[in-house]
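Work Package 4 report. The design task specified in the project plan requires that, given a folded chain encoded as structure tokens, an amino acid be chosen for each position. We show below one input record used in the internal validation round.
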């Protein structure tokens, strides 16, 4: 993971690294159908949108860092990806299912999504103060043409995606805590994996429908 990332700086004593996936995100934004004519304005807005994603992920991970410092388990480094961050050293390693340990892991896992929820709430209030209410729900929700609305929805999506019950997402860690309060810790890890596999199977038709809708909206011929 470190070899596929670049140094982004240090904050609160933690090394933040940026994964090369952000370059692919920027390339996607530049090559998206609405941005085929690469004039300076479109390039600038595409870069700005990628920066907003990076900022939102940074805020998410800062929540985890602050929670870890408050619990006496400071993180050393984290890699920022478009959907969240990955700690290079696990700040909440598997430990026996004692009440204090589970409460600690609960607070660590919840900190990141709570930051995104707070940022989305503040930005949403600001948007409704300066725009008609319908502006917030105008499609596409995330676009280079409305960076302020995009910032709101980026944080909403980061909040929602990171609560999916899949480890190492925050939702998977929260589910693991829930299971660990009711069974042995190792069994809780296995149960969390089973929930994710079941969800992956059940959501397969939804993913196919989403891909088909994306192809239809882009005007590209469907893939066989």
């Amino acid at each position: 993971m470190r070899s596929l990332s670049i140094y982004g700086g240090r904050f609160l004593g933690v090394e933040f690294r940026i994964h090369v996936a952000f370059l692919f995100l920027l390339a996607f934004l530049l090559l998206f159908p609405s941005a085929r004519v690469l004039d300076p304005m479109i390039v600038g807005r595409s870069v700005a949108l990628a920066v907003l994603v990076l900022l939102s992920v940074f805020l998410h991970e800062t929540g985890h860092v602050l929670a870890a410092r408050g619990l006496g388990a400071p993180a050393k480094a984290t890699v920022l990806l478009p959907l969240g961050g990955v700690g290079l050293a696990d700040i909440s390693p598997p430990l026996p299912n004692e009440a204090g340990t589970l409460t600690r892991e609960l607070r660590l896992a919840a900190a990141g999504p709570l930051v995104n929820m707070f940022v989305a709430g503040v930005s949403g209030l600001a948007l409704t103060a300066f725009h008609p209410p319908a502006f917030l729900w105008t499609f596409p929700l995330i676009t280079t043409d409305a960076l302020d609305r995009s910032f709101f929805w980026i944080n909403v999506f980061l909040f929602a995606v990171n609560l999916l019950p899949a480890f190492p997402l925050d939702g998977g860690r929260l589910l693991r805590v829930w299971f660990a309060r009711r069974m042995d810790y190792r069994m809780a890890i296995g149960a969390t994996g089973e929930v994710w596999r079941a969800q992956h199977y059940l959501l397969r038709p939804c993913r196919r429908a989403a891909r088909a809708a994306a192809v239809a909206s882009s005007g590209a011929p469907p893939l066989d």
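Residues 132 and 138 are 11 Å apart (CA to CA). Validation will be extended to a larger panel in the next phase.
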